[in-house]
Amino acid sequence: MIIEAEGWPGHRPGQHLDVRLTADDGYQAERSYSIASPPGEPLEITVEQLEDGEVSPYLVEVAREGDGFEVRGPIGGYFVWVDDGRPVFLVGGGSGVVPLMAMIRSTSGLTPMRLLYSSRTFEDIIYRQELEDRSGDRIEVFHTLTRGHPPGWTGYTRRIDNEMLKEVAWPAAEQPHVFICGSTRFVDAAADGLVALGYAPLSIKTERFGATGG
Amino acid sequence: MADDRRLDGNAIGGMMLELFGFEMTTATEVCATCGTADVMAQTEVYMDAPGTVVRCASCKAVLMRVVRGRDRTWLDLSGLRSIELPM
After folding, report:
1. Residue B17's closest chain A neighbor by CA?
2. Is it the case that residue A209 has pLDDT exceeding 90?
3. Which ipTM did the prediction report?
4. Of A89, A93, A212, B14, which one's alpha carbon is 20 to 30 angstroms from that of B74?
5. A118: burial class by Cβ within 10 Å (0-12, 13-18, 19+)?
6. Which residues are A114's β-sheet partners?
7. Contact yes or no for A206/A123 (Cβ under 8 A)
8. Who's near A123: CB < 8 A, 6+ residues apart?
9. For residues A175 and A141, what is the distance between their CA atoms, to the nearest angstrom?
10. Which of B6, B7, B10, B73 to mutate to probe the A interface, most A CBs <10 Å?
11. Contact, A62 vs A16, CB < 8 A?
12. B-side interface with A, Cβ within 8 Å?
């Protein structure tokens, strides 16, 4: 969904924004959404509807073009990529790919990037076509599907583990930037695996989101 | 799952921005209990309690509690020795 935010000061790849909805009786619900668009382009968020959520069902089912709501941001200075030419290793689980997409979309095309992206099923892969289109010498995309896969699937078919990280990640000696985003358990597993491969903990930037509550 | 409730300090970036007026996820906080210095983004955050609870990723002690009411916010920083803000 594209948001036109008056006075938006611009953002950096990896940042998020908060959406606040206020009911007639004053009750407020607030949720964070990662920004998917690169700096300088119309502000885009990707919303995954959670059945028992308070905000996502409104954004997906109710909100129509031209509707207004309160937005706060850009937020975050930690989970932000600054391109200094060093290789970038992105690890995303489910909708955790959204802030990583902002990084992929904002690359100059010179910095080597690798994305390891875990989805439940083939249909759950967000930005599947765009990722395929952007894949090339500088952007390499590796998929893994954890709950079934279509015939002829050539990607991984299991949860991210140390062996997979070893096959996909750059050697630690190349000092890549690392961004991991997904559920808490996903992020912990990927970060622990990279530390076991010799990555410095401080080189690994992580962002966790809850399994419920959207 | 208890583990899925645990978020990190990125999740309260917006709330902190509103309370402090600064981008706080890169602020360094020193735990009053164990002395560990860590950026806010790396702390452990629980948002499904009646308030928001921020814990030290190292010793798990409570660093900060935030409870929001309709027209006021309570902020308990007693678990913090110091906060260093990038300015």
Report:
1. A75
2. no
3. 0.92
4. A212
5. buried
6. A89, A140
7. no
8. none
9. 19
10. B10
11. no
12. 1, 3-11, 13-14, 17-18, 23, 25-26, 39-42, 47-48, 70, 86
pLDDT tens column, A149-203: 999 999 999 999 999 999 999 999 999 999 999 999 999 999 999 999 999 999 9
Residues of A in contact with B9 (CB under 8 A): 78
pLDDT tens, B7-33? 999 999 999 999 999 999 999 999 999
Rounded to a whole number, what is the distance in Å from the CA of B78 to chain A's nearest CA? 24
Per-residue pLDDT of A30-62, as tens digits, reads: 899 999 999 999 999 999 888 888 899 999 999
d(CA A14, CA A37): 10
* Residue A82 contacts residue A111 (beta carbons within 8 Å): no
Residue for token digits 């990555």?
A199
